[in-house]
Fold these 3 entries.
Entry 1:
Amino acid sequence: MKFSRFRMAPVIEWISAQSSFLQFLTSLLTLAVWVFYAQLLLGGYLRQRRPKVVLNQVMELSTKGRFLISNMSAEGIHIESLQVWLHSYEGVRRCTVTETEPDSEGQLCDSIQRGTLQGPLPPDGYIDAGEISTLVRRARSSPFDDNVASLCAAENCDYTVELLVLYVYSSAPSIMGAKRTFTFDDDGNARPYHVETEQLTSRRERKKMADIYRKYLTI
């Protein structure tokens, strides 16, 4: 017992001598833990507030299927424009398909809900963007865009469809975008090129989306 007390005495004396430093170190470690958990909470909050628009192919894998636009954000979005970019080995055709086509008699739909895709889309809401074959046909009638490089470089590449949604999110100051690419095999079946929809929300991407939307307004 006396031997143990003899060995512990220097330790106790060192702790007493360094008490101020140890208290500072404890406070610093406590602050680091709080900062760590604060960053976790802030990161989770920012992820929840970040806009997320999902583009899906539903009903069928072929061109008879349809494209679906879903708003998975915490707040509503306002769709400004929907564009179809048709890639082939010949080049890229860009077509805006926000408005529906006239009927067989050449009359436009007089209903806002059925006549346009433009408008507000609430959280967890979705909208039918139309049949794939119809969107591809509309894109085929558009001229080639010489400023865009095609994703299909080989002649055996039939075509690839790139769907781009331009939208405004809540109080965000500029246009944002969501993009997904679909490729078609020899049997005419469409499959997504990427697993997820690409979210175009960075400052550089927002500037690019604004330029694209500006060109759409001048058409």
Entry 2:
Amino acid sequence: MGASVNAAERDAFFDEVVSAVNDGKMTWGEAVRALRVEVTGLNQAAFARAVKISERTLRQLELDAGNPTLETLNAVLRPFGLKLGLRR
């Protein structure tokens, strides 16, 4: 998603990722990786530092391994204006 992407395109990408997760077409790990790579362009080490989690925790999250806490998931989603929630 590069620097030339406007706010509407970015928001459409966020909506696409959120819908894919909600519909079961994308895992949490895939969503986090897509957001990290496409929106920030940061590698795992830099992104983990930015959201104040360990690189290992981020790696496990992106691989859908481990058992991340709600706090960890929200820390990773916060830079994108997203947070974990329930839906009916």
Entry 3:
Amino acid sequence: MNDKLNNLIDIYLKNGVNLQKYQHLFLTIPLEHHDLGLLIKKKAIKEYEAKVYVYEWDDLSVLVDKPDYHHQNYINKLKEVYTDKIKTLNDDCVYLELRAGIENINCKNIDYLNQLNALIAELNQEFKIKKRNKGNVISCKTVIPTKYWADIIFSEDSLNKLWDVYFKITLADQLNPVELWNKRIADIQHYVKYLNEKQYRFLSFEDGKTSLMVELIDNHKWTGGCEITDKGIRYMPNFPTQEVFTAPKRFGVNGYFKNSKPLWYKNIMIDDFYLKFVDGEAIESGAEVNAGTLKAIINYDDNSKYVGEIAILPGVTEISKSGILFNTTLLDENAACHLALGSAYPCSLNQKIAYNQESFNMYELNYANIHVDMMFGTEYINIKGIDSKGRYHDIIIDGNWVI
């Protein structure tokens, strides 16, 4: 396991944040992984002469069974971390965020845990908006196995099993994984470059259960695998990833999809569901499992019924091959093609814009207070691009890239 952990640290530092000499590294990590945090810090100092700041705390799962926990200390720590992160947003700082895998803890009606969930969401959103408006800020977000998360997925020997799967999907169990990720990023960037050059007006998605026609925004930009700063530093905002994504026009989605993977939302699983779109709006929905929660997502605010992201993935990925529902979007979204109800990402446009509703409306991007990814692609997905003259071009056939 030591070799795999060393590989993983190299992936985080070289592929994830692409740490440069003398930079300041802000590392957030669950307290459960104190020793791993020390190893990351040691390597960053030794090999990059970095200044390293490590923030660690119990994730909310640990607090579920601590009714007498002094949660004000936790709140103060959270605010300290995010205050530091926001104050230091500049080109010399990089942010590596290792999260507990489970995103939404069952709070069992414990008021202070519900308050903490709300505070974390608020602080995350504030940092995200400031980071996007600042631009050129290197940050990598990923998940890391924890006991609470493992116990939700596996019944026996849970943490060891989850680590085994995690090493596989991150390629940390392979020889020269940093180079393997460089190759994968290059492949993804090939697809990104092709799609950006083509500037298709529409995409069609068909697999027998889904039939979608998606109109893309004018001057749209595909992103995937990595982002590159103005100084030419490449990094991975999310890890691991295999998607390429952009934004549709707010009123440009028509058709229907049937989910191919369950959706885990605020500790509730939604499954066997569908959505039907007319002129961008989700006008009809249904679900065999937790239909009410699906409707709550659609009606979260005035714009959450529209689509902010469309993402292409091959029919089979490491994550889909695992056959596991990880209950965390960062991993589960990389199992299949997906769309997101709610807000678009400003990086989906070939020019910089402010992260606000007025700017989004100007470019026909959807702006909302929610972003929920829903997986619909199967291993037999067929995707075509339609150009400005109405000609169809194959992008994926039976789940395989053909460009």
